[in-house]
Design brief:
This protein is mainly α and 258 residues long. The protein has 16 helices and two strands.
């Protein structure tokens, strides 16, 4: 239901699972993912922490909490829990700090993390995606650019590489970080199949503000079914406020007290 953007059904199913067994770790951590998708990031972090309290050694719960901190733009808090997720064997523990560096425009830090990740996979003879290598190579060129012209050209090559990825939620975050939020609607429109559960988490938090400030953002909420869900359920995402019958998710709205 969540992947198919049947948000009301997903909410009901998750709540039923938690009613049956509130101590089920998987129900708590998957419900946390749902909450992140619909823009309730504070509650998402709360349920991720509950999952960790129930099972401190849950790889998924620790990775989820790192993802929550990513949405909040808290790279320091993310780093601590991401290291734990990595030690427990969850790949996202390595990837989350990479995305947080990108959202903070700390490109040299991001390159160092990407290099370390690829080196680790090579040392363990793990298969490495060709797209990851291409991205690493483009990131090297971007980080080494020593003039505005060469940096702009290298940045465009990075944008082109990310835009070529297929059905990857990370592409949304990276396009925003590369100052091309204008391409997000186009990127999502060209996908053969968008499973909105997992994609819409990239719409929230301070790093996604350039996307929410664009007029096309409401198109994304409509296509994903979230706007209708908000209207019918009365739920308001953390970063938005209702202005009459219209939902405002701009910086002004995010800074208004509830």
């Amino acid at each position: 239901a969540r992947l198919e953007s049947r948000w009301a059904d997903a909410q009901r199913f998750y709540q039923r699972a938690l009613d049956i067994d509130p101590s089920d770790v998987t129900a708590n951590l998957w419900y946390a993912e749902h909450l992140q998708d619909i823009g309730l990031v504070d509650k998402m972090i709360e349920f991720s922490q509950i999952a960790i309290q129930l099972d401190p050694l849950s790889p998924g719960a620790n990775a989820n909490l790192a993802d929550g901190y990513l949405s909040k733009g808290d790279c320091d808090a993310l780093a601590t829990v991401a290291r734990k997720a990595t030690a427990l064997g969850h790949r996202y523990g390595t990837f989350a700090p990479i995305l947080c560096s990108a959202s903070s425009r700390r490109w040299n830090d991001m390159l160092a993390l990407v290099e370390a990740d690829i080196a680790q996979m090579q040392s363990e003879n793990d298969p490495i995606d060709e797209g990851a290598l291409a991205f690493r190579n483009q990131l090297r060129i971007f980080a080494a650019a020593d003039s505005p012209a060469s940096r702009a050209a290298a940045k465009q090559m990075l944008v082109d590489e990310v835009y070529s990825w297929s059905e990857d939620p990370a592409a949304v975050s990276l396009l925003i970080a590369l100052d091309r939020a204008d391409l997000v609607v186009e990127y999502l429109s060209k996908q053969e199949q968008v499973y909105w559960g997992g994609f819409t988490k990239s719409f929230w938090g301070p790093s996604a503000l350039p996307l929410r400030e664009r007029p096309e953002f409401m198109q994304l909420l409509e296509r994903s079914g979230l706007l209708k869900y908000y209207q019918q359920s009365g739920i308001t995402p953390d970063d938005c406020r209702w202005q009459g019958e219209s939902l405002d998710c701009t910086k002004t709205a995010a800074n208004e007290p509830i």
